[in-house]
Amino acid sequence: MSPPTPRLRRALLVLTAALAALLCALAPLPAAADGPADTDPADTARAAGDGPADWTARPAGGGADRDARPYVYLEGTPGTALQDRLAVTNSGRAPLTVRLRGDGRAGAWIGFAADAVTVPARTRAEVPLALTVPPDAVPGDASGVVVADDGDEEIRVPVRVRIGGPTLAALTVEDVEISGGTIRYALVNRGNAMLEPRLAVRADGMFGTLLDRPERPLPLELAPGRRIERTEPWPDAPALDAVTVRLRVTAPGGARDEAEASATYLPVAPAVGGGLLVLGGLALLGSGAYRRRRTRRGDPEPPGAESADDRQPTTETRPLVKAGPLVKAGAES
Q1: Which of 29, 37, 90, 322 is most solvent-facing, going by the fewest CB within 10 Å?
Q2: What end-to-end distance do the CA atoms of the chain give, in Å?
């Protein structure tokens, strides 16, 4: 077995760098900033009464602005037609033409006395509307909006419909994930009633409870069939631990569900240092095993290596010559 070559040493260095990069990738990332995850798309447009100063649209009735209804609310059984009115006020100095349409589930059931209405300057007009509940509508709550559009801007008036019959409140919490200092999850209304969810959060680590937030109401209304994604901040998440996060959601009517997720928090620097120590230890063990095996098998030393005998000092020995009798020069006669 030959000793490690320069190519093998370079391969070990590349492997070390790859392990360090992998450990960095597995470390928790900083928590992402919370966005408007629970914003209803139907609320992104200008709400009733919050439009330009020269015109407004809102449910009719209520007198002064402070007493105006915040949304159109109707109740009925499947197959019935429900009546209401929409008030459009033109405070400007020129006539105003507004087009009307329904949007969303309940909005699709709405018909207007006129799809477009022209309101003179400094005048208020009330437009009748009729909402027909489909005969096969499921009992419970339905929602939608009435959209008033003048060509430049639009106002969206919420519509809430309570359909007679037995209701079912069902709520699930799904897709729980932990990312650094953020807990992500989704809420889904599985029933036929409008829900106002409440949330409780608990996190347990290896040595006890790390987070325990009691149940609190969430700032949203969840319509039947609607799914919404939300985030829960956890700014003091641990740096080194194995945690399990549990979410519990409830809503009036008996709706309840729980879900959990697990994560391991590992600091980047200690992880990289530990990986390098492991690689170094493996390299030392491999080198020692190679030398012991070479010694047992009597393998020749690699070129350029000195043996123990080569390193010992040597003394030169010469054969001893026994002195004989001296012979005189010349021959005897």
Answers
A1: 322
A2: 77
